[in-house]
Structure formats: structure tokens, C-alpha cells
Design brief:
By secondary structure, this protein is mainly α. It contains 5 helices and no strands.
């Protein structure tokens, strides 16, 4: 298994075990849908996106509330337009 595949598995894991069932479902479906289409730069942005706290991601997704510059992350817009 190469380094990129290991990194992808790590991102999938991080998106699947967030702490709440809602976030686990929302993020894991998003990541699994796009992960194999992302290049290294997008994967790095996804990694940074997953660093945001659940409430920051949820507020942005549900209400468009921008906290901690989540809207500056290149993955945010794609995530915001994703539907489960």
C-alpha cells in the first residue's frame, strides 16, 4: 500500500468516527464519494477541513454560518453543496 492510499484511509477513518452519528454519516458519505477523485492538494485541503470542530462544520452546512474561516477551505463549497 502506497503513502497516498494510507493517507486516504486515514481521512476516511477521521470522517467516519467524529463522535456524533449525524456527523459520522454526513462526513463519511461525502469523503467516500469524492476521495478517489481528489488529487494530493485536494486531499490536503480535506485533511484541513476535517480539523474543524463538528459544530463549525454543521453550522456551515446547515445554516451557512461561517466560523474559523471554514469558507476559505477549498473543500467547504463542495461539502456545502453535498446532499446525503
Amino acid at each position: 500500500m502506497n503513502e497516498l492510499e494510507i493517507f486516504k484511509k486515514k481521512l476516511i477513518y477521521r470522517s467516519t468516527y467524529r463522535g456524533t452519528k449525524e456527523m459520522d454519516t454526513l462526513l463519511s458519505k461525502f469523503v467516500k464519494k469524492y476521495i478517489n477523485d481528489f488529487d494530493k492538494i485536494q486531499l490536503s485541503e480535506l485533511d484541513k477541513f476535517l480539523d474543524f470542530e463538528d459544530n463549525v462544520i454543521l453550522d456551515y452546512y446547515n445554516y451557512g454560518i461561517v466560523k474559523k474561516n471554514i469558507d476559505k477551505n477549498k473543500i467547504s463549497k463542495l461539502f456545502k453543496n453535498h446532499s446525503v
